[in-house]
Amino acid sequence: MRFSLLPKLYNSPARRLFPPFHRRILFNYMSTGLPQLGKIGLFQCEFSDSWDKCWDEGLTPWDLGSPTPVLVHLHNTGSLPKGRALVPGCGSGYDVVAVACAERHVVGLDMSDIAIKKAIELTSSSPNAEHCTFLKTDFFTWSPDQLFDLIFYYTFFCAIEPELRSLWAKKMSNLLKPDGDLITLIYPVDDHEGGPPFKVSVADYEEALHPVGFEATQISENELAIAPRKGREKLGRWRRSLHRASL
Ligand SMILES: C[S@@+](CC[C@H](N)C(=O)[O-])C[C@H]1O[C@@H](n2cnc3c(N)ncnc32)[C@H](O)[C@@H]1O
């Protein structure tokens, strides 16, 4: 039942390849039973290996093969902050290079060595390549020298185990400048069981982000979602409102 739902979730031509990927990731989720901090270390190596295998075997049903349309739209309409941007879990790096420009340096981060190599290969001939940096590292343990004006990601929140969401939010808050923008694509908004990808809702984001001081400045249907994801994807923009932060 669970496997039969998965093709609908990512909806790419590679969807028939999803079940083996899912089984492997699920196995690793189930094999961890440690307290939270120790668990992250375990996630780091087990997940890194699993994601790497997905990339190595071409089991990447989430990959659009092009930049995320709504991100390109925000870039083209001047609706993204300049300065330093971060794309965690960047995969093939299409989004990284799509919004990189002379006024905005973009860091693409992924824990899979193979994804990062692929991203560098795919983007190196782009005129914007000089405005990008790709890093193979774990989002949860990485500490950069400088903070970011913008963080954008797609299919990353749904890829991590729900119990890590508060750590995810704390990390977002630690990586962004106090007045920085967090742009989230909230997907998949549905009611399937299990994961990854895990189902998500606006309330899940609020539950994670409110305690670290983020408030939504925009939540709307993503009208530019690819056809199979339409109706199950929202655009969320968040900013820190420091008086609410309790951490
Ligand atoms: C479902 S894929 C999405 C890739 C890309 N955002 C896209 O939409 O095409 C999730 C990506 O997050 C990466 N990832 C998962 N956990 C991570 C972590 N803790 N730190 C960095 N990258 C991570 C995986 O290697 C994988 O490439």
From TrEMBL:
The UniProt keyword set, sorted, is:
Methyltransferase, Phosphoprotein, S-adenosyl-L-methionine, Transferase
Molecular function (GO) terms listed? Answer: S-adenosylmethionine-dependent methyltransferase activity
Q: Name one GO biological process term.
A: methylation
State the PROSITE patterns in the record.
SAM_MT_TPMT (PS51585)
Pfam families in the cross-refs: TPMT
Q: InterPro entries of this UniProt entry?
A: SAM-dependent_MTases_sf, TPMT
- Name the residues that span the membrane: none
The record, for Gene3D superfamilies, names: Vaccinia Virus protein VP39
Q: What is this protein's name?
A: Thiol methyltransferase 2
Annotated source species: Salvia splendens
